[in-house]
Amino acid sequence: MLEVTDLGCVRGDRRLFSDVNFTLSSGSYLQVQGPNGSGKTSLLRLICGLLTPSEGDVRWQGANIHSLGEDYFTSLSYIGHRNGLKEELSPDENLRFTSGLAGIAVSRAEAKRTLAIMGLAGREHLPARLLSEGQRRRTALARLMTCETSLWVLDEVLTSLDSSAVRFVTSLLEEHLNKGGIAVVATHHELDLSANSYQQLNLAS
User: Fold this and answer.
1) This prediction's pTM
2) Closest to 147 (Cα-Cα) out of 195, 103, 112
3) Reading across the β-sheet that carries 14-24, which strands appear in turn?
4) Pick from 19, 30, 22: which is nearest to 54 by CA?
5) pLDDT digit string (tens) for 155-182?
């Protein structure tokens, strides 16, 4: 269970948001919306423990995330609006490297199969810097097919994807939720998900 209580965020001399509250249990999905500059990315980074809140706290399975350390970080997968790829590495190398950092060994054969499913067959050995934005995004999202985490935190991950790729990522989310996972997604797309619990949070309101 993920619990956010009275969460606030101040960056510099500007307050982005305050009094954000929500609880997500197994199979739950939260869609975060709001205009640019409203604090969507900051909220997601707070949930991931990458920023410290101005007030309030984030709890995972009843404990403050900052007290859990690696036990929390190994429970979540975060994909930001930047793809987080190493430019000189290929999709194959990026996928196996990031999976390895998460403690998951992915073989070359498994990486090749995964990247083919993501529509990258024939491009898996090209340096990431040579890929289109859509291909780079698909490479980043391939991590979701190899991870074993229960909490997904995704920041505008559907940007640069065509309609077929959006449908595929939606199906990945659906499968994750059906297995009891939790997802927090900042996106302007309306996703048709049959989650046990669907919530929306608009930071502009």
Assistant:
1) 0.90
2) 103
3) 14-24, 2-11, 55-60, 63-64
4) 19
5) 988 888 888 888 888 989 999 999 999 9
